[in-house]
Structure formats: C-alpha cells, structure tokens
Design a protein that fits this description.
The structure is a single chain. The chain is an alpha+beta fold. Helices cover 17% and strands 27% of the residues. The chain has 2 helices and 5 strands, in the order E-E-E-H-H-E-E. The chain has a 3-stranded mixed beta sheet, with no helix packed on it. A two-stranded antiparallel ribbon has the order 4-5. Strand 4 and strand 5 form a beta hairpin. The chain is elongated and about 65 Å long. The model has no long low-confidence stretch (mean pLDDT 76).
Length: 88
C-alpha cells in the first residue's frame, strides 16, 4: 500500500436538524444533514402527500385530451380505462 496518498480519516458526529446525532468515520471533519431516519416520513410512517401546483389536475386534464378516462381507486392508485381499436 502506498504511503501518503490516502485521505485522513476523522471520527465525526453527524448532526441532523431534528437534533439527532450519529457517530461515524469520514474524510470530512464535520457533517450536518437536513433529514435523517428519525425524522424522514418514510421511516416514521407519517406520510405527507403534497400536490404542488395541481399535479393531479394537470394529469387529468392531459389524459382527458388523449381521449381516455382514468378511474381512481380507494387507495389513490388509478387504472387507465382506454378502449383499444383492433382493426385487422
């Protein structure tokens, strides 16, 4: 192994904005993160669905222009319902 080519390793504490801290080893001397497993919605189970800019409405409008219909189920997942032309 060549000497003096490897970066220096530091024992650091990673700090999250929620207040949680983790100890790890890194080539950086400090690390601050905005979100961690203690505050991320995926890990906490507190999902928030944000519809910024009316994405669902824009999708419905665009899909309606194509001539198809879209049925939404109770789970929020939709299934396209388009008639296919089978001319042979």
């Amino acid at each position: 192994m060549k000497k003096e080519i490897h970066p220096s390793m530091y024992k650091i504490t990673v700090s999250c904005t929620c207040g949680e801290t983790y100890d790890t080893i890194s080539t950086r001397d400090s690390l601050k993160v905005e979100i961690c497993s203690k505050c991320h919605p995926y890990f906490t189970g507190k999902k928030k669905i944000l519809d910024k800019g009316g994405r669902v409405d824009r999708f419905k409008k665009r899909y309606a222009q194509s001539g198809g219909t879209y049925k939404f189920t109770d789970e929020g997942k939709g299934t396209p319902d388009m008639e296919e032309d089978t001319e042979e």
